From TrEMBL:
This is Cysteine-rich domain-containing protein. Residues 194-277 form the Cysteine-rich domain. PANTHER family: ANAEROBIC GLYCEROL-3-PHOSPHATE DEHYDROGENASE SUBUNIT C (PTHR32479:SF19), GLYCOLATE OXIDASE IRON-SULFUR SUBUNIT (PTHR32479). The keyword DNA damage does not apply. Keywords: 4Fe-4S, Iron, Iron-sulfur, Metal-binding, Repeat. InterPro entries: Cys_rich_dom (IPR004017). GO terms for molecular function: 4 iron, 4 sulfur cluster binding; metal ion binding; oxidoreductase activity. The keyword Acyltransferase does not apply.
Length: 439
């Protein structure tokens, strides 16, 4: 691995080395410009370089480089099909470079106290989730208070979390609590067993996604257990808190590797979390845990990816008896962190089995993890959300029908800006089976 990829390398947080690597990569991107429409990092970069006579990134000041870093919200879309990516002589990996630059800024004292405080709130997703599900009525009063209201502004002042964008609400019962108390079903024919890793979003907020996932899997003879792993750590990673992320990754790798070794693959229903497990744990854990991290990555699946893998194999029968409510058309958002896993559009393929016609939106919603809720990201997120929502509305106007997306945060953006209710693809399948919704 190069210093760009390896957080355990001596030069990973070195400012001069990181800035020199940024200059090298920015020059390659400038000669390519394929990603100019993906986010504001690239236009910011290219506009600056166009102002230099020689267009060379070596002219950029640290502040100019930091403007590019600060505009990146880690959608990872620029890694999809990059012709200069890892494995080529240029070895460009913009998302990883942006993560390294953020960590370097933090380590070298270039990030403010407010960012550090915000990271403490957003990074401790399990602690905050446990407290907020226990006090859901009160917590949701704050979360659901109108954008810009005094309550949201006070909350923002204390935490650094956005006062203007919609936040996901908390459930009154955790997913794992529901899972432990639910009536057991007798499976006619057990076909497989999995461990569900709900991660914080499904454990504390989108618990209905987890419930429908269990019901769909059990209907298909897949026995489910729930992992003891903690929040995947994405907010720490995206905030540049590499030591805290590495500690969490090491804990989760040990837990998940034991679960894999006991014979159950890991199923993660949120794309950012599965992306982190598959693409970041191995490089952050100590050398002694790397083999376990690779074992976990190789046996971790998105919810639809796992079902479609079994369906496409020879020894498994997926129930395609969709006698429930099947939408004629579905506007489907394929989240960036699923696209960059390059496992195909398996949620689309799964929903297609119902007979629904599906139109796919591939744009980033501008929010890729809880870290994206920091108030400092308001402008970036709003610009990106505007483009995303206009794509959703354009496609939905052509075909109406249901709206689906795997990412709960992107679905929250849709709810914030439209009257549409976007659900997880597994919930489309649950209703198509005739499984009633939880509420
Ligand atoms: S990230 Fe890759 S595809 Fe995008 S502009 Fe840079 S070199 Fe081109
Ligand atoms: S990861 Fe996304 S936001 Fe960051 S530079 Fe790449 S395309 Fe832009």
């Amino acid at each position: 691995m190069t210093p760009v990829d390896d957080p355990n390398h001596d030069l990973y947080l070195d400012e001069a080395a990181t800035r020199s690597e940024m200059a090298r990569v920015f020059d390659v991107c400038n000669s390519c410009r394929r990603c100019v429409d993906l986010c504001s990092s690239f236009p910011t970069l290219f506009e600056m370089l166009d102002r230099f006579d020689d267009h060379a990134a070596g002219n950029m000041t640290p502040a100019q480089q930091d403007a590019v870093v600060d505009a990146c919200f880690q959608c990872t879309l620029c890694s999809v099909g990059c012709p200069h990516g890892p494995g080529t002589d240029d070895a460009v990996d913009m998302p990883r470079l942006m993560l390294r630059a953020t960590a370097m800024q933090l380590d070298n004292g270039h990030r403010g106290t407010r960012d550090k405080i915000t990271a403490q709130f957003l990074g401790r997703a399990d602690l905050v989730g446990r407290l907020n599900t226990r006090t859901a009525a009160a917590a949701n009063k704050v979360v659901e208070a109108p954008a810009g209201s005094w309550l949201r502004r006070l909350h923002s002042r204390l935490t650094g979390i956005t006062a203007t964008r919609r936040l996901p609400t908390y459930a009154t019962e955790r997913f794992s609590t529901w899972f432990a108390r639910r009536p057991r079903i007798t499976m006619q024919k057990k076909q497989a067993s999995v461990t569900l890793f709900p991660t914080c979003l499904v454990e504390y907020q989108a618990t209905d996604v987890g419930k429908d996932l269990v019901k769909v899997y059990e209907r298909n003879g897949i026995e489910c257990g729930v992992s003891n792993a903690k929040c995947c750590g994405a907010p720490w990673l995206h905030a540049g808190e590499v030591d805290r992320f590495a500690k969490l990754a090491a804990h989760n790798v040990a837990t998940l590797a034991d679960e894999v070794r006991s014979g159950t693959p890991i199923v993660v229903p949120q794309p950012t979390c599965s992306h982190v497990v598959k693409h970041h744990y191995a490089e952050h854990v100590p050398e002694s845990s790397r083999a376990d991290a690779e074992l976990v990555a190789a046996h971790t699946y998105d919810a639809a990816e796992y079902l479609m893998m079994l369906h496409r194999g020879d020894d498994y029968v997926l129930d395609t008896d969709f006698t429930g409510s099947v939408p004629r058309t579905i506007t489907y958002h394929a989240p960036s962190h699923l696209r960059s896993q390059e496992t195909g559009l398996t949620s689309r393929d799964l929903m297609r089995l119902t007979g629904a016609r599906i139109a796919v939106i591939q744009q980033s919603a501008g929010i890729e993890s809880l870290w994206g809720y920091r108030a400092a990201d308001d402008t970036i997120a709003s610009d990106q959300a505007r483009r995303f929502i206009s794509a959703v509305e354009r496609v939905h106007a052509q075909q109406s029908g249901a709206v689906a997306g795997d990412c709960h945060l992107a679905n929250t953006v849709i709810a914030e800006h439209t009257e549409l209710v976007a659900v997880h693809p597994i919930q489309i399948i649950a209703r198509a089976y005739g499984i009633p919704g939880s509420s």
